């Protein structure tokens, strides 16, 4: 992997570039970070899809798909969560083979299309068009109905905090998404969001900025931004052990257990908690349990399907009270390190990691993988014991 170059060429607008020939296609993506709050959760979920329904120069999805195909790639969008932030993502893949002028032409086209989507979305009477908004709201309603247990647990654990706001918002919040509110939210991102552009491809850094300057020349230069570097690492104080149980109509139980991690531990060494997550996953694999740990959110969750939930709860709590075996700790170190390195083999995942480095305190995949191998069994044991401090069991039966 070649070196990485970074620029801030407008206030709050950053470019990270990786010059490499490891991938068959080039990749250019736009990542816009904003505070995730309950009022804007549904807006942040709806906006990426609306922007990709059409633009001033490409008035419908067919025209957009045709332009992306002409560039030799494809277009995708996503609404993501990074700690207490929402992340809007627009991504383009494009041809990165052949003569230099062919590769440069594809990149220029990708930069122009990305700027067009973000700055000149399809509008009517100066506002975002109603048709794509209505379609996106309908798509989100279907996703609301399939909201997973982990999201519900997070909402219960962190009620009243930004972390408790589900990325997709709530059904009633979706009803308040209108042409006016979404247009206003889009404008607020243009002036106040922190924007990261990520390029991965074979072109040298000195050829990248001119096309981007042309494509994003109309981006307003805000003087103040809603996010400062490193703010996403703030973790709420240690909370309580929470247990949430949901029973399906067939009588099958779905269990979710969650812990709030301490500010002083979770934010300072996220790699350590990644290894801990992997060790717990190995410990609980016979229970068909899934273990999720996000040190940025400061939340550990364990999900398990069970026909005898009380017995499963007892087993989970017993194993959490026991020392992690040395062989499992070693396996967890190796697997966690491989997962970090694998991020660099997928251009989409690698671009997301690069875009988030500024708000995640500069953690790189290579450094994280190396740190995994140095996590000691004693450190893991200390982190495991911290999960049991000041915990109170809370059980809630789903209606």
> Quick check: average pLDDT?
80
**Name of the CATH class of the largest domain:** Alpha Beta
- The amount of beta strand, in percent, is 15-25%
Q: In the CATH hierarchy, what is the superfamily of the largest domain?
A: Metalloenzyme, LuxS/M16 peptidase-like
Distance between the termini: 52 Å
Kindly report the CATH topology of the largest domain.
Cytochrome Bc1 Complex, Chain A, domain 1
> Helix amount, in percent?
40-55%
Uncertain stretches: 228-239, 263-267, 389-399
Secondary-structure element order, N to C: EEEHHEEHEEHHHHEHEEHHEEHHHHHE
Explain the overall architecture:
α1 (38-51) packs across α7 and α10 crosses α12. Residues 228-239, 263-267 and 389-399 have low confidence and may be disordered. The strands form 3 sheets. The chain has a 6-stranded mixed beta sheet with strand order 1-2-8-3-5-4, sandwiched between helices. A 5-stranded mixed beta sheet has the order 11-12-10-9-13, with helices on both faces. It has helices spanning 38-51, 61-70, 100-119, 130-145, 149-157, 171-175, 179-192, 209-215, 263-266, 270-283, 309-320, 326-342, 347-356, 365-374, 377-386; strands at residues 4-10, 13-19, 25-35, 75-82, 85-95, 123-124, 127-128, 194-201, 242-247, 253-260, 289-294, 299-306, 395-397. The protein is α+β, with helices and mostly antiparallel strands. It has 15 helices and 13 strands. It folds into 2 domains: 4-215, Cytochrome Bc1 Complex, Chain A, domain 1 (2-Layer Sandwich), CATH 3.30.830.10; 232-397, Metalloenzyme, LuxS/M16 peptidase-like (Cytochrome Bc1 Complex, Chain A, domain 1), CATH 3.30.830.
